[in-house]
Specification:
Helix content: 25-40%
Largest sheet: 7 strands, parallel
Radius of gyration: 21 Å
Order of helices and strands: EEEHEHEHEHEEEEEEEHEHEHEEH
Bound molecules: flavin-adenine dinucleotide
Distance between the termini: 59 Å
Strand content: 25-35%
Number of helices: 8
Structural class: alpha/beta
């Protein structure tokens, strides 16, 4: 039976939450088009993770093990996914719009001669909604090729429900690790005591208005158990590490509460946070564009307002 095939993403022995959201997106496409929902797990020594996926309301889990897939390099991933898609009659092939998904899926599309839609935020039958021009426009698109490739924005889809016990099948793939034009040099994962930015319920973000003093942002984040984010301007200035960047060229976040301090609200930043449930903006310029998307706006100097806010939160907690 033709299927929607979602490629799972995993790290350090765990399926990433973004995969469960991608499965929900895949399920909506499958249900609307009368297809089965299947999931693929690629890597080396990953078979142990199949049970997790098999319990997620999917019809089948494909496990593709190969030494060359150990580090998820896109050359090998693309060939393995394309071979699997052809062998299983998958008509829709998708994954979460993460760094990895965005890396290898265009290659999959090229191998399958397929049209591709990235960053899907909503599904209506076989029509997909995706942002264009830095989220300034929401476009409804239809992929007209026989095979269709897509990535979906994880923050727009709830994680798929648990339940079921799908069949787990192995798929053998031929890969020539020696022929790769790219080799794996190393992976440096940033370890933090704070919640991961894309999964946090609360995000406190600082912009150029902080003048590089992220201590004040950290203090508020500590009080709220929040992740820290920033604008690109702050990263470009070297005031915050790259992984803090929220926006068009950064991470997409959709926490319950986003607090942006000293952030102008340029469209490229809004692209990454405007899906947040409650947006609080602190900016001393009442004309700052961020106030147009904010649920609560405070026209104030952040160096005065944030310490006061911290004091009030402490009092409320006491
Ligand atoms: C292709 C492209 C991709 C981009 N991608 C991204 C992206 O992913 N993410 C991103 O963020 N940007 C991105 N940008 C950059 C974006 O256009 C803006 O330049 C950037 O977001 C501005 O950051 P900012 O709000 O920190 O700085 P500014 O625009 O300088 O704003 C600082 C704000 O702080 C306020 N302020 C100053 N002092 C205080 C104070 N004491 N108290 C309170 N408020 C104060 C000011 O009123 C001002 O509104 C991209 C740009 C391009 C061209």
């Amino acid at each position: 039976m033709a299927s929607v095939l979602i490629i799972a993403e995993h790290r350090e022995g765990k399926i990433l939450a973004a995969t469960y959201s991608a499965l929900t997106c895949g399920k909506q496409i499958a249900d609307a088009n009368g297809l089965s929902l299947e999931v693929a797990l690629l890597g080396k020594g990953v078979e142990g993770l199949a049970a997790d996926l098999a319990a997620r309301s999917v019809a089948k889990v494909h496990v593709v093990e190969h030494d060359a897939l150990e580090h998820g390099l896109s050359e090998h991933m693309a060939k393995a996914v394309a071979d699997l898609a052809n062998a299983t009659d998958a008509t829709w092939i998708g994954a979460a719009s993460t760094v990895q998904g965005r890396d290898y899926l265009p290659r999959v599309a090229a191998r399958l001669d397929a049209g591709m839609a990235t960053n899907v935020v909503a599904v209506d039958g076989n029509k997909l909604t995706r942002p264009m021009w830095a989220d300034a426009v929401m476009a409804e698109v239809e992929i007209t090729t026989a095979k269709k490739v897509f990535t979906c924005r994880p923050t727009e889809f709830e994680p798929i429900a648990e339940g079921g016990s799908a069949e787990v099948a192995k798929f053998d793939v031929e890969l020539d690790a020696g022929a790769a034009k790219v080799t794996f040099a190393g992976l440096e994962l940033v370890k933090s005591e704070r919640p991961a930015l894309t999964e946090a319920n609360v995000v406190v973000a600082g912009g150029r208005g902080t003048k590089g003093d992220f201590g004040i942002i950290e203090a508020l984040a500590d009080e709220l158990g929040a992740a820290i984010g920033s604008t690109r301007a702050v990263v470009d200035a070297g005031w915050a590490p790259n992984e803090y960047q929220i926006g068009q060229t950064g991470k997409v976040v959709a926490p319950d509460l986003y607090i942006g301090a000293g952030i102008s609200g340029a469209i490229q930043h809004l692209a990454g946070m405007k899906g947040s449930k409650v947006i609080v903006a602190i900016n001393k310029d009442e004309e700052a564009p961020i106030f147009q998307v904010a649920d609560y706006g405070l026209v104030a100097d952040l160096f005065k307002a944030i310490p006061e806010l911290i004091e009030e939160i402490k009092k409320a907690k006491a």
